[in-house]
Specification:
single chain; alpha/beta; TIM Barrel; 6-stranded mixed sheet; 3-stranded parallel sheet; 8 helices; 9 strands; 38% helix; globular; binds zinc ion
Length: 222
């Protein structure tokens, strides 16, 4: 059987140090849960860790805890937020990269990419990528979709924009080399020892698995 990987998504960690967007509180987790999830997945070669939104807690809390466990993560940064209070600075992004972490693009302004006019989509996918490449002085080839929102047009623009891996929030597993990678967000109410079971719940039963395939096919082709 093909190997299937689980990718987890973290957002803010620890004390909340800025006004949150709607729904953001549900995915802002305390440091204890973060550490417990890392301990739970340590040693699992089939689990990938990603961090969205470019929060300052990426360097303040995530980086030291990852390094302590010799884990690696991919950090998806919102270009326009760099240096704003509560978010990563350009120097922070370089520090993450220097520590061996991967840096990806989470757009320019943290807006859903569906239904944007062409210029807006270009700004989100191409200009944001170029800005991050300027910060890092190296190519940025991975993206994660804000709010997990995408459609056929967005995926086409991502391919044309030079991304060789794109992360969604569709839950479940993905082949490690697939261009489109489903992920599962960690929520503040989650239990650390249940996150992997939750991540794969939509694939555990044959009927649920078929429903998931149908739903994802619609998202890719709408
Ligand atoms: Zn986001």
């Amino acid at each position: 059987m093909d190997p299937r990987f689980i990718t987890l998504t973290f957002h803010g960690i620890g004390d909340i140090d800025r006004p949150l967007d709607d729904g953001e509180g549900d995915v802002w987790i305390d440091r204890q849960l973060f550490g417990a999830v890392l301990d739970h997945v340590s040693g699992r070669a089939d689990v990938r860790l990603t961090f969205d939104d470019g929060n300052a807690s990426d360097v303040r809390h995530a980086l030291p805890e990852l390094e302590r466990r010799k884990l690696r993560g991919t950090f998806f940064v919102v270009a326009e937020r760099l240096g704003r209070p509560g978010f990563l600075s350009a120097g922070d992004v370089r520090a993450l990269a220097d520590a061996g972490m991967a840096i990806g693009c989470h757009g320019m302004r943290h807006v859903p990419w569906r239904h944007l006019p062409d210029e807006g989509l270009h700004e989100e996918l191409v200009e944001a990528k170029a800005q991050l490449e300027g910060v890092l002085d190296r190519p940025v080839t991975e993206a994660s979709c804000p709010f997990g929102a995408y459609d056929r047009r967005v995926l086409r623009a991502l391919r044309r924009g030079g991304y060789d891996r794109v992360y969604t929030s569709d839950g479940g597993t993905a082949h490690p080399d697939a261009w489109l990678q489903a992920r599962t967000s960690i929520h503040s109410a989650d239990r650390a020892d249940a996150v992997l079971t939750t991540a794969t719940a939509s694939e555990a039963q044959p009927v649920a698995r078929l429903q998931r395939h149908a739903k994802l096919a619609v998202k890719r082709w709408r």
